[in-house]
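Hey team,

Filing this mostly as a record. A colleague (T.K.) asked me to run one chain through the structure pipeline before their review meeting, and I want the input and output archived in the tracker in case anyone asks later how it was produced. No errors, nothing strange. Just documentation.

Input sequence:
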Amino acid sequence: MIQITSAKSPFTDPRLAAQAVTALTRAEAMGLLPGTHRILTLDLPTLRKVLGYLHRAGIGLSYHFAPGDQANPAPAVERLLRQLNTAMEESPAPQQEWNRLADVLGIDRLAQLLGISLTSVRRYKAAARTTPDEVAGRLHFLSLVVGDLIGAYNAIGVRQWFDRRRAQLGGRAPAELLRGAWDPGASEASRVRELARSLAASPAT
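Output structure:
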């Protein structure tokens, strides 16, 4: 559970808190946070620390808090979160995402969801071969879906989510719509993403 530590924090605004949680869970799902790093508080120092991790991955390098933001940080925080969430949405990071998704989903399940062989997953994960763009796109899509889910589910729940049949998907499970060399921009994949977003719940209190 992520806690807001101060009544004066800009994150007491539910809209900002939701944007911040999206950024934090997305960064975690993409493997951009150190494996030992746990986010327990939602405050400006935490956001700055996460921003530093994103910069190390080459994401959002031009985004910073502007001088004078401390006087009224909410507008700057909102702008920064919007920029960071968009940057992460549009920035596949296979080098980091392979390890994190393998940890969450398991390497066999990850291979199935990506529509590639287990041998290929191992090679790409170990950087023995460069991840092709189309595979990187599907990997990033799964990272974003997992990022939407980990605010509400633990790792077991995330894995099971892909196999649960849903009325919103015409009685099919998400994994049934992600078969073979599926396209992240296709309508069926978009329905899976929309479902994940709708089920995600903010853990901020």
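Quick notes for T.K.: DSSP finds ten helices and no strands in the chain. The two ends are 8 Å apart (CA to CA).
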